[in-house]
């Protein structure tokens, strides 16, 4: 049996006529950059989250970068975030010439630890970026309180959390700004790169909207230096179709995650937990074992494509070691990064495939 980590072909096949129609519509009207398709998807996504507005951008990285700029983050500022995430979270901070400050994670959820966030605040701290890792929301109540008391910007990295909720509030609607990625493998993914910035603050939205399009107010009048960070109309049209299926797909992901957890409950591995006030959308189903290399080798021999998200914490990345982060010690992040394995998880996964994966895991764990 061959089981991919993500099966985008199966997803496309399930909605092919609608996707093909949307693509053809864009080709026929030849409006490929911004325009009506992007505006329609921005409005639909904002309505889905219950926020005042949304701005389509070129990628999740662009969303983070523009959000930081809209908040005035720049040279010599500090931004507190987690080291257990994709590189783009910290990269966006660095390209503003601010300094990422990495803090450790909760050992059960792998999410940023609010207590350590507060301890890391200095006079230079300008913002906090929690990551809703793997689809489970960070503790937004505690983080909102910290940022409010210290007058800091709170920017949600919701790149893996489309449809996730904290205390019934949608991720991307709680902080000052929310940042989404529509990379193809996400719960809501396009056919290339794409991203979104969401907010209830009209001034922040206006700032992001201007900066994504070369800082201009009219076609040839530029108020400030910006970037070519626009969302393509083709991607917006595809995402507009997929948005209608997101809740259904997330329900399937949650069902598959529950099946994994039940079948693995007596196996000597660590399975994910879902906190009572969170709605986890399982972008990834991540287990932990100190025998990771042996486990992954065995799974691949059985045709199962497992992954590692992420093998190296950001403070141990060469790019940051060269900037003097070698003395940073984050023991929980470092241990978790040595042990995590992402199992195949997507809406079209079958019960037979899940059982086969679990049987293969047990062959090693036992």
Keyphrases for this structure?
seven-stranded mixed β-sheet, 366 residues, alpha/beta, 41% helix, three-stranded antiparallel β-sheet, 14 helices
Structure description:
It is a single chain. The chain is α/β, with parallel strands linked by helices and 366 residues long. Helices cover 41% and strands 15% of the residues. The chain contains 14 helices and 14 strands. The strands form 4 sheets. A 7-stranded mixed beta sheet has the order 1-9-8-5-4-2-3, sandwiched between helices. The chain has a 3-stranded antiparallel beta sheet with strand order 7-6-12, with no helix packed on it. Helix 5 links the parallel strand 2 and strand 3. The longest helix has 18 residues.
Q: How far from one another are the termini?
A: 21 Å
- Unreliable stretches, pLDDT < 50, 5 or more residues? none
Identify the overall geometry: globular
- Portion of residues in helices? 40-55%
Count the beta strands: 14
Q: Return Rg in Å.
A: 20 Å
> What about the largest sheet?
7 strands, mixed
| Beta-strand residue percentage | 5-15%
